[in-house]
Amino acid sequence: xxxxxxxxxxxxxxxxxxxxxxxxxxxxxxxxxxxxxxxxxxxxxxxxxxxxxxxxxxxxxxxxxxxxxxxxxxxxxxxxxxxxxxxxxxxxxxxxxxxxxxxxxxxxxxxxxxxxxxxxxxxxxxxxxxxxxxxxxxxxxxxxxxxxxxxxxxxxxxxxxxxxxxxxxxxxxxxxxxxxxxxxxxxxxxxxxxxxxxxxxxxxxxxxxxxxxxxxxxxxxxxxxxxxxxxxxxxxxxxxxxxxxxxxxxxxxxxxxxxxxxxxxxxxxxxxxxxxxxxxxxxxxxxxxxxxxxxxxxxxxxxxxxxxxxxxxxxxxxxxxxxxxxxxxxxxxxxxxxxxxxxxxxxxxxxxxxxxxxxxxxxxxxxxxxxxxxxxxxxxxxxxxxxxxxxxxxxxxxxxxxxxxxxxxxxxxxxxxxxxxxxxxxxxxxxxxxxxxxxxxxxxxxxxxxxxxxxxxx
Length: 458
Prior knowledge:
The protein is of the alpha/beta class.
């Protein structure tokens, strides 16, 4: 889950000059083929104390889209100001970059639903999640009907079993999200059957084990949210895009500062790797002025450092013909590695060697999801340094603290991030949030001319 900082608003409704205090967290949503099809955005909003005059003022919806920052009449309530700050954050370009072209699922409060600020969210890019705890009355239902007429789509969130709110909201939603950890297992088959018959898409939340994915997949669920795909047990269902031994041999060779002739000889043993490298050299603008036609030219145009990073990330690429931005494991590995690199550069006395070590720590932190078996054995084969291995295996040292931070970021564990930042000064929660956004955008962009990831296809 990647975190995105947004604006704080003052008691007057204006944007404060103070540090950003609210953040979004991004968690992947996969389709039945195990590919990315969306992200849930969890919002950590700024806490604004209400004034005596405004505390209990209800929001009043209208039928026309207006700029919420220029609404006439009485000033907005604190809840409305928070809602509008959230909307401003969701529609900024940095957030769009982190979503990498996928739709966003976002929790919406009653205040946000009833405020015209919500009309600034593009209906084709956002699905609005409705909590079962919402106060469902005639005013809310009328607003859902109105927003549905503007092509907004709704998700019934956190379902464990049918109740009164479930029955009232079900006719207006397109997706039903079921909390697999809390829903009675015996109820799932019947619940899935009834909802599928009603034409609803089913989303299984909290899928962190391969067995849960397989069980809900078998029941006909359409979407899956959780990190089951990054666990070692999922490796049997995943095909890498080049033979594993070929990638490991290449990484071991690259670790020893090889000559061009040595690299050329190793690559020639692996036609799949040669094909990828030729595509990389010709598609990324590295070979300026002429087309790369030989392997030696491709190596010289790309450079050993870039070939090493490309090979590290290629470990995670699915063997199917999949665009990078749709491959969940590669996206997670690339985002984590880039975050580690960006974060360590903010720390005192960090240089190029430290940045490289941080990138390696991130990129290999769940290499067991590809290779299976003991993580320590795979790290030994990769001949990683002791500090990197200590960080991955035991979360030791600065690298270990940074790795714990990105893990907390992926889960949206805000208090844990606060505690970790105490160990990583001068980093702040806001710094971590912005770097999470930057790392997600870097990982999600294919065909960068200077840096980033190139599209890998078989």
